Amino acid sequence: MNETLRIIAKRYSCRAFTDQAPTDSQLTTVAEAAAAAPSGVNRQPWRVIVVRDRGLMAELEAEAMAVLSAQEDRATYDRMMQRGGKLFYNAPAMMVLPLDGAAGGSKLDCGILCQTAVLAAESLGLNTLICGLAGLAFAGDKAEYFKERLGFPQGYEFGIAILLGHSAADGAPHQPDASKISYIG
Ligand SMILES: Cc1cc2nc3c(=O)[nH]c(=O)nc-3n(C[C@H](O)[C@H](O)[C@H](O)COP(=O)(O)O)c2cc1C
C-alpha cells in the first residue's frame, strides 16, 4: 500500500480531541493543499477560512446547538446529547469552507475541497472530523453575525466545516462495503 492509500485507509472521524492545537505551519499546509483542489470550470467557488480562535469556535458551537435544540425533529439533538452534547468535540481548530452559490459553486466542488483538506491534514498526522452540523450556526438568527465574523464574502453560504487536531482516544476507520463496488467487462 502506498502512502496515499495508507492515509485514506487510516482516516476516521475523530470525536474526541486533545487540547493540542495544530501548528500554524500545519494549518497553512492544509489550507494551501485544499486550495489546489479541482473545481468545475476551475471556478474555485470557495473560501478556506482557518479558525484558531477557540472563543469564536465556542460561540459557533453554542449557536449551532441552540438551533439544533429548537428543531422539531429531536433525533439529531438526542444523538448529539448522547455523545456528550458537544458538536465540536473539543477540537482546537477548524476550517470553515463557504461556497459562492451565485457563481455556480456546487456542493460537489465543496466536497472535493473538503476531502482534499482532510487527507492533507491526515497526512500531517492530524485527526479530523467533517462537521456538517456546524452549518446550523449559519441557519439561525445569528447567521449574518457569524458570516461577518468569519469574513464570508457577499453571497457566500456555509458549505462544510472540518474540525482539526489530535485524537484523545483510539478510533477506527469504518469497514468499507465492497458490495457497493461493481465491475462491468
Ligand atoms: C458531509 C459530511 C458531514 C458530516 N457531519 C458530521 C457532523 O456534523 N458531526 C459528526 O459527528 N460527524 C459528521 N460527519 C462524519 C460522518 O458521520 C462519518 O464520516 C461517517 O459516519 C463515517 O465514519 P468515518 O468518517 O469514521 O469513516 C460528516 C461527514 C460528512 C461526509
Mean pLDDT: 95
Q: Write down how many β-strands occur, each being a DSSP E stretch of 2 or more residues.
A: 4
* Total number of domains: 1
Question: SSE order, as H and E?
Answer: HHEHHEHEHE
The unreliable regions are: none
- The CATH class name reads Alpha Beta
Secondary-structure-derived class: alpha+beta
What's the SSE blueprint?
Blueprint: H1 3-10, H2 24-35, E1 49-51, H3 54-69, H4 75-82, E2 93-100, H5 107-123, E3 127-130, H6 143-150, E4 156-165
Antiparallel strand pairs: 1-2, 2-4, 3-4
The structure holds flavin mononucleotide.
Describe the structure.
- By secondary structure, the protein is α+β, with helices and mostly antiparallel strands.
- It has a single domain, classed as NADH Oxidase (3-Layer(aba) Sandwich).
- The chain is built from 6 helices and 4 strands, in the order ααβααβαβαβ.
- The protein has a 4-stranded antiparallel β-sheet.
- α2 runs antiparallel to α5.
- The protein starts with a helix and ends in a 20-residue tail after the last strand.
- The model has no long low-confidence stretch (mean pLDDT 95).
- The structure holds flavin mononucleotide (FMN).
- Flavin mononucleotide binds next to β3.
